[in-house]
Amino acid sequence: MSGREPAAFASLYYTDCLPGQGLGGGAGFGFQARSEGAGEDEQRLVQRGALYEVPVRWMRDRRPVADFPPSLAHLHDGAGTERTYVTAGGRYLGREANGYRDGNQFTHAVVTREAGSYGLVRPAQLWGASWWASAPAPTTSCAPVPPHPDPGPWDTETVRERIAAVPDGRERLLALVTALGGLQAGADRRRVLLVTDRGDDAACWLAAATLLLDRERALAISFKIFATDPDRSPHDVVVAHPDWAGPYRRQDGYLVLDLLEHAPPEIAPPTIVPSAEALFWVPLFLGADDPLDVVDAVEVAGQLAREGHPDGRAVPGEVEREAAALTVGLPLGVDPGAAVRIAGWLRTAGPGAVDVLGAPLVGTLVAQTHDHTALLDLDAVAAIRAAALGAAELGWDAVAAAARRRLFDREADLAADGGHVPDTPLRPVAGEPAPADTLGQVAALERVAQRADPAAALRLAHRHALPVPDGVARRFVGWWADHPDADVDPDGWALDPTVVTDLQRELERRLGEPDLRERTAADVERRWWRRPEPLAGRIPVLGAVGRLDLAVARAAVAAGGEPARAALTGLAAAVAPGPNGRWVSTWERLLGRDPVDNATVRRFLEASPPQAHDRALAVVAYHSLTRAPAVDEDARAALDVLEKAGLPPRALGHQDWPPADASVTEVVERLGQGARLDEARDLGLLLAKAARPTRADRNRLVRALRGAGPSVGGRVLVAAGPSTLRDTMLTQLYAWAQGDPDHAPDPRSTAVLFVFATKETAVRARVGHGHLTKLDAVRSGLDADVTRAVTDLLADDRERAADDGVLELWRERRRPASSLAAHSGPSWRDRFGRRKKG
What's the pLDDT at 800? Predict the structure, then answer.
């Protein structure tokens, strides 16, 4: 709002003029004078509905001039901020200017385009004001009326006293406020007809009702006291004398209110359900110590409602009314939800509404409410406003600080009682924070830590950007160690960075306590080795290898992968090497000297680097493997690692370990005994059931297949089906078939591979075709002698079926037709059918 003084009212006088007396120059009724700011547009608006209406029947009855009541009219033109307002006072004069006829009247109209010109008064309060002119001006120019005009007898205090003194005044005012508020309801609006023989009485009631509407809405309601023909009147509210109102009292187009002390018995008062707006303001107006406080609150409510409604037609709702009432210090009764509603509304109402209410109201709400949600909303509002430029001069910094203190106290109480308090940091509050000790925040955090749990205290401190007291931090470390699954995030809290280290020291201590060791080790394996930070790569965690490092390493090795490799590397670098080397010392420090299960051996060997796999470590590994109750998958995987390092069991004296796989042994023995072609399928299926064979088993198998002859060996491989074992044997056969600088190509391996690839096409066409392609490359590198040797092996194969066609395919360098068809796949016509003709 600007501090500019609103414009003065332009004045217009209307009466019966003598020749040359008026603005038109001629004789008769017209505008006699006007002030600066009034023109023809204003004259037309006054003529439309502001002039005094002479009751013709009274004039014909020649009643005394004193019997004719004065009039007061108000109307406007335009909408929103473009309105022109007219208020006019009129009186009956009797004889016309030339003295021949009755019917003369005088109307003084004031016109403005600024609602602010009315100040704190409503148009109805201008009834009987002393500044109304009652006679023509000496010239055609008259004086304007200053803004903020003085009211007549109906100042706000007098209006309230008069209404309160009427026995049914409260009910009448409720009805009238409801009716006037309904005039802005669009198509359902009903004009209001007030019936009275006293214009001052009508003005009083209209003043009371419009004082309980904000100025913008009040000025938008047009009225006329008195109108001789209500049907022809354009006004929202028409006041009619009982002599003229009879025909209109029973019309549905009006909401009729009789203001007469003794209304006719046949006229029943209307049934009007009071609006929420009327029920809120009327009791306050009639009961307040100062009714002007209520008027101020009504105005504030209007401003709040107009935020975001530039047309000025917004009606205040419950929250706007409650907020406005609190702004001026009016009581809100015993409704505890008012503060909550206002706080929630403020958070979403925008800065305009907050500025209207100001810091004092928010401060009042902060002091009066204990509701957590309301305090959250008020804290957010105050913190935002306190960050704006010039906020300190408006008191927002103090309000924001008070809101933050109240919110902390409330959240401390909630947390101490086990309630949920979010850990989302609050918006920083502008200004220097007060030391925590002076506000009792340290004691509050200690109380939360003792009554609820230390994590709740830390969340609260983090949320309010408070330093964590040492006692609370120490208590938290112990609590955290007891609750490994707690959903806490110390990294995001305002904690000393040593809190995680303190936790690790506490875990180290507990791992040394007999009654806590087992549980703590389980917690480390399940949780602590990965949270709150991954520890596998940080061994030694506390500077020297300790119990926590061993627990972390065990957990990481059990998990496998990169954490296991990192943990073993860190542990090996930290331990002092013994006589058998660093890695044996690492094993003994981590796993002890007693045998461990096969899975542990496997995980240790797979996680340790290749250079660790020396003879000393192999001795330790075999010490466990050879004492295990069974040779399982883990044992065979560990054996693979050791054999790749050139440390097979027999090299270390374990001649009878591992025992050969029974399936492999049977297949090797039967192939060595000259298995027939009809046994090949059974041998392949038996091979498919074999457990993970050792390297020695695989070598025995591939030699047996090579020596069994092309037809049997190839068909055993087909029947065994795809597997790691088969892939390993095929890889060895390809290596032998191609030869190397030290070994000539092996025709027997090539013959077995060709039979396998040819027969595989009938079962797994794409696989077989791939092997045939690979064999083409092998064959292209063979000389004529080797190729002829393969041909002889296929021709001399005693188990070859005469009609299997393998020999012909080799000689003619052809492929089975089925392999090509299967590889290329069916055509789209084969899959989806040919298109029908016609």
Answer: 80
- Contact 725/693 with Cβ under 8 angstroms? yes
Q: What's the pTM value of the predicted model, to 2 decimals?
A: 0.62
Of 362, 371, 397, 369, which is closest to residue 383 (Cα–Cα)? 397
Kindly report, residue by residue over 601-656, the tens digit of the pLDDT: 999 999 999 999 999 999 999 999 999 888 888 988 898 899 899 998 888 888 87
Q: How far apart are CA 496 and CA 700, in angstroms?
A: 65
For the CA atoms of 255, 257, 258, 264, what is the dihedral angle to 10 degrees? Answer: 50
511 token code pair: 């791992």
| Tokens at 360, concatenated | 């004092």
**In contact, 31 and 51? CB cutoff 8 Å:** no
Q: What is d(CA 360, CA 350) in angstroms, rounded to the nearest whole number?
A: 17
Give one DSSP letter per residue of 20-89, joined into a string.
TTSSSSSSEEEEEEE-TT--HHHHHHHHHHTS----HHHHHTT--GGGSPPEEEEEEESSGGG-EEEEEE
Whether 286 contacts 208, CB under 8 Å: no
pLDDT at 9 over 90: yes
- pLDDT tens for 166-180 read 988 899 899 999 889
Q: What is the DSSP track for 714-761?
A: HHHHHHH-S-HHHHHHHHHHHHHHH-BTTB---HHHHHHHHHHHHHHT
The β-bridge partners of 86 are 75, 111
Pairs from 534-539 (Cβ < 8 Å, separation ≥ 24): 534/563, 535/504, 536/563, 536/564, 536/566, 536/567, 536/570, 537/563, 537/566, 537/567, 537/570, 538/570, 539/567, 539/570, 539/571, 539/574
